[in-house]
User: Which sequence fits this backbone?
């Protein structure tokens, strides 16, 4: 059985909810990623911040990224998956919630992230094609 841990990109890092968006952008640059899970004071997932969120939700709105926090941008219910979850559960979670990145949790700790690129690298062609068709199908 292939698990979430088998296909994830290891070493994901939290951004604390109190951290500003300019610092988040710097961290994204340092880590060469386009998204960071947002952690509350108890290191629980409270959202995911993307580079697009910073540009569209802050800069394009005329806000100062040095004054807006990651927590200010956290919206909705964050989704995640256990490290030992079967890859079919990963696909189901991403498909049902139409999300492109999924934090992987093990023993209540962030251990990685799964992105569409990770799926493309690790899934058999037929399974990937079926998933792509479902997630990008027009309603």
Assistant:
């Amino acid at each position: 059985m292939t698990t979430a841990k088998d296909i994830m990109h290891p070493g994901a890092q939290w951004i604390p909810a109190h951290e500003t968006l300019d610092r988040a952008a710097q961290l994204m640059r340092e880590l060469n990623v386009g998204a960071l899970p947002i952690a509350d004071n108890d290191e629980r997932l409270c959202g995911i911040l993307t580079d697009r969120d910073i540009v569209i939700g802050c800069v394009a709105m005329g806000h100062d990224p040095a004054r807006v926090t990651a927590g200010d941008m956290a919206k909705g219910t964050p989704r995640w998956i256990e490290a030992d979850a079967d890859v079919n559960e990963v696909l189901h979670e991403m498909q049902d919630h139409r999300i492109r990145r999924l934090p992987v949790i093990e023993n209540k700790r962030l251990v990685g992230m799964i992105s569409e690129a990770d799926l493309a690298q690790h899934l058999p062609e037929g399974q990937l094609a079926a998933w792509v068709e479902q997630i990008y199908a027009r309603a």
Q: What stands out?
A: The CA atoms of residues 8 and 114 lie 5 Å apart.
